[in-house]
Amino acid sequence: MILKTKNLKKHYTQSEYVVKALDGVDIDIKKGEFVSIVGKSGSGKSTLLHMLGGLDNQTSGEVIIDNTPLSQMTTDEMAIYRRRNIGFVFQSYNLIPTLNIYENVTLPLELDGITVDEKYIDSVLKMLGIEEKRYNLPSQLSGGQQQRVAIARALASKPLIILADEPTGNLDSHTSQEVIGLLKLTSQEYNQTIVMITHNAEIAQMADRIIHIEDGLVVS
Amino acid sequence: MIKNNNQKIMKKMIKNSLLNHKARSLMTIFAIILTCIMLTSVFTISMSMLKSMEHTTAMQVGSSAHGGFKFLTEDQVDELKDHHLIKSYGVSTVIGLIEDKRLIRRSIEIRTMDSNYMKDSFVEVEGSFPQNRDEIILDTMTLNLLDLPHELNQEVTLSMSIGNKPVTESFEIVGIYESNIYSHTSYMITSDEFKNSFVGDEIGPNMLGANNLAVSFVSKYNIKSKLLTIINDYGYTEEEINSGVNWAYVSDITSIQPNDLFAYVLMIVMLMLSGYLIIYNIYLISINKDINHYGLLKTIGATQKQLKQLIYGQALRLYIVSLPIGLLLGYIIGILLVPIILNTLNILTVKTSAHYSIFIFAALLTGVTVFISCRKPAKIASKVSPLEAVRSVDTNYKYSRKNKKRKSGNKLHLMAWTNLFRVRKKAVLVILSLTLSLLILSSVLISVENFDPEEFLSGVIGSDYLIGNAEYFTYRNDGGTIPDSFLDEISDIGVEVHSFTMFEHLIEVTDELRDKIVVNDMAEDQSSSFDRDYIKIESYGIDAFILNRLNDYVVKGDIPKVLKVNQIIVDSRFFASDGFAHAPYEIGDSIEFNNQSYEIVAFVDNIPLYLYDQSFTQYSIQAFTMEESSSDAMTLMVNGDLEGIKDDLLKKYPKLVIKSRYDYIKHLEGYIRMVKVVGYTLSGILAAIGVLNFINMTSTSIIIRKREFAIMASIGMTGKQLSKMLYFEGLYVIMLSLGLMSILSIPISFLIAGRLILSHAMTMILLSLCYIIIISLIPRFSYKIMSNESIVERLSVVE
């Protein structure tokens, strides 16, 4: 098991109410698996993904990645762990506007002080079809292209896991298919695990396995 | 339209907004206070300057009353004094003059005065007012001339001229007042009983029994017409009643030069601008930040007017809180600076003003600054479209430039550099304001460094000691000389003595000279009627040492090594009918006086004060001739050491003043300290503005980039790395400012000193270190506050 949660709970206090975003989630994801998480908005799927990536602290329970429990790490240790082991792809791409495509993609490596494997980066850019755009700024790219850059960035450090939060939410259906195809292709190429949130049933079907979440609980 | 009552909720929202953004509110308060301080102190200084100048003129005139009537009978006084225009009045009756051998150097009028008149005439009596016939008040200068101690209840016998009769009587001094050194006249104030024994119903010869009525009105404007109204209201004509306006109140706002007025207005505008920049920045940024909030308010139905009201309401409340502090501090700084500034302008009496208009104008202009500052932000907030607002969090920080063909822009220090110039206008503004403060400090240090006390002193004192009659150093030089015994005494010590003697002669005005005077005279209307037969020449007898001193001030011709007996050097300044003109002579012309003819060899100008007598009289020429004898010297220039016997000499010759170079140096040190204080205060205020702008820029840019930082954190940037990047951003700002300052300092150094001065570099480096510390602390602090939220919360700002 590469990724595991044990009775994971996340409760928020909103004014006087306690919102139970996650209320005891247990999932197991194998290495190399492509899993989509589906559920209505407010079901807790985004919260789950954030917890898996260590972006948020759980109320109770545990997230274990590659036999390492995340709760024991400090914020900075978590950041370092993240840049080495987890790649994020967000709905709104989240590229740094002042950096060009190449710099955006290699930023996680730069932050880690690792020498860039030019060959690898070249092959990733090529596979995603954005090698021509490497010196462009994000503002000059289309949405689909920006999302491919985000995927390239997620792949740059050869992470164990890629966490994708509605990666196709801002894309048209044709581009969506294409982007997910690429995501799947690269993960197979580099033997990576993908956990993806989506609303889109068609996109969800592209995964090996689908996890349904409702009211903070895994229903199937 | 139905008026709905939403004031209560508006008030609540304004209050909430202020309390929820404490840091912003505090910074705005600080900015408003700074603006208010600067404006108040400038107004305090200018009002005090006007008042001091007015007071100095009034001292010279000898009265602070607005105007007066002269040569009145007692009946006329009773009539005029009750006019409704007159706010206060004082009466004085002229009795006669002192004509005493001991007091020949000063004109002393015998008068009675009521307490109002005394107050107006700067007569502050110590002791009591004369009641009996033989009781009088005298001033300190008269007592000095009489060789009497400044003590009450002593007897003095004086010879007088009353009417046209000589009178000699003994009096008891019951009161003493401090002489007005600006005035040429002293008063001997007597009792009414004394007056009544001489004065009859009519005005006698030599103004015996003539009454002066000094009056003051509610305001100092239009005095002339008010005086005339009073005269006319009682059925008199201008010719029958002699009236006059006090010169001190003649000059008013209309007599200010347009250039000075422009400079003044420019300064006020600059001050308002610096305040505007901070407040504007704070509001603009905060509105950009809260744009979602305003969009939301609009979605739920807030009108444009209400959004504007929300912003103005906040500004107004902060303004009200800041105002008293700003006014108070500004006033304190103002009155502390007044003496320094007046000193540099050679205004001798210092009067600070607390006129209400200072505070009204300062408050008003600060208010205008605040209002203008939030006008554009208010407009932006009120015009925000609800849809757009929800989306555009970081519109201000969108980055779209040319493609960059580089691969290492993602290094921390390079990212910092790009970030710095994302909002170019703001970065430039912050850098400029920091540069300005550093530059002003540097200029102050350069001018202090460049100040050469020796050079400055050569304009004040030409030798180690300058000795003269006490009054020589005042406006009123009575021509007193230095006693020969004193000369003998210091000659015995073996110091080098150079005497400076003055002779007054008359020069006959030939037709040729008359034409030249007419041409040279600036006042055209009077020059055509120049009808004097003689003009005065003040000829100073000097020796070779002083001759050598004059060399520095030659404007035309040459001073020979040895000035022959028939050669003369002339001061090119000539006090004509209405100010200074050029002396009506050329090089080579000859001047005849004292039965001798002198050839003009040189003209000098701007000679230092120790080389001439300051009592200018109209149509007089100042000139220098050779004189070897030291007798009847007015001043002495002594080189050598007198410190040991200085005190003894002063005790022995109480009327002499000994000014030493040493005293001047001590005085100068104080002066330099003052220059430093003023300079440092100024640079301090500017530095505060610079730092405020910097805090403003960094903290808001951190808040605005909150989401971007969250992205970086999500892909693995640690807090340490983020702080480092922010630190680089601050470092670049200070480095750019320092660089700009260093480059600009070079021309400024040449401008101020004429050479490159680097001795203050160490101070500047230390100061820069302080800046760097501040700069490394601010981003860390702002980041700490921000990182209280989890990455998810920060990421979801938009989603």
| Beginning-to-end CA distance, first to last residue of chain A | 19 Å
Structural class by helix and strand composition of chain A: alpha/beta
Largest sheet of chain B: 11 strands, mixed
The count of β-strands of chain B is 21
Poorly predicted runs of chain B: 392-396, 522-528
Largest sheet of chain A: 6 strands, mixed
- Global morphology of chain B: globular
From the alpha carbons, calculate the radius of gyration of chain B and give it in angstroms: 36 Å
Sheet-strand content of chain B, in percent, reads: 15-25%
Q: Which percent range describes the beta-strand content of chain A?
A: 25-35%
How would you describe what is shown here?
The complex is a heterodimer of chains A (220) and B (799). With 220 residues, chain A is an alpha/beta fold. In chain A, 35% of the residues lie in helices and 26% in strands. In chain A, helix 3 packs parallel to helix 5, helix 4 runs antiparallel to helix 5 and helix 5 runs parallel beside helix 6. In chain B, the strands form 2 sheets. In chain B, strands 11, 12, 13, 14, 15, 16, 17, 18, 19, 20 and 21 form an 11-stranded mixed β-sheet that branches. In chain B, helix 2 packs parallel to helix 10 and helix 22 packs parallel to helix 25. About 2% of the residues of chain B have low confidence. At the A-B interface, helix 2 and helix 3 of A face helix 14, helix 23, helix 24 and helix 26 of B.
